[in-house]
Amino acid sequence: MPEDWSSALVVVAHPDDMEYGGAGAIARWTAQGKNITYLLACRGENGIDSMEPDTCAPLRVEEQIASCAAVGVTVVEFLDHPDGTIEYGIPLRRDIAAAIRRHRPEFVITGNYRETWPGGGLNMADHIAVGRATVDAVRDAGNRWIFPELGLEKWEGVKYVAAASSPLSTHAVDITDSFDASVASLRAHKAYLEALSGDMADPEPFLRSMAETTGQRFGGVLATSFELLAL
User: Fold this and answer.
1) Facing residues of 70 across strands?
2) Mean pLDDT by 10 residues, the chain (231 residues)
3) I need a surface site. Which of 58, 70, 76, 95 has the fewest CB within 10 A?
4) What is the DSSP string of 16-35?
5) pLDDT at 30
6) CB 101 within 8 A of CB 1
């Protein structure tokens, strides 16, 4: 992955999205002194079956902030799109474009917005909507005639856009030295993990397996993958 940039904006749908693989890259980059901000489309209020949404949302916000701190990120913003039924469209593009204009990143990172995951598992609608809207919002943010009502100066300075954990990944990041931070970041989602079952509920072996599998394609190190999009 290119690293000739100093600031990035991460845009994902839910708390925990970037932590399932991508957080190791974030930890690597913050350790290099890069400035990274997170924007989440929702508060994850419908993500724990055993917990009422009004109780769940503030807990998941708190856990996401702690998760970001584990990888060196201190600025975390949340939108109020509805968890589970986030829609691709102008309101979502406007909100993301506003964040791009405010933070003026050189690099925008989002989650996998393809129909499937590596290995063929079906992706979910929220991830697809937010990823697609993020890619489009990068262009929106650079056009002063789109969303002028925001009252924010256009930003054409995004050099790279990347989607984490895409089945069409083209690049990877060596996370050997930042793997432990990646695990700590996922472990910060304590309530969410306690409600899960199966492999995804145990951060260290799950993330290690992903990193080793990716590393087999990209040089044999622990790695996390991205689809790098041309601008």
Assistant:
1) none
2) 97 97 96 98 97 98 98 98 98 98 98 95 98 98 98 98 97 97 98 92 96 91 95 81
3) 58
4) TTTTTTTHHHHHHHHHTT-E
5) 98
6) no
Rounded to whole angstroms, the Cα distance separating 108 from 130 reads 13
| Residues 15, 202: Cα–Cα separation, whole Å | 17
The answer to whether the pTM exceeds 0.85 is yes
Token digits of residue 105: 């990143």
Integer Cα distance of 68 and 74 in angstroms? 7
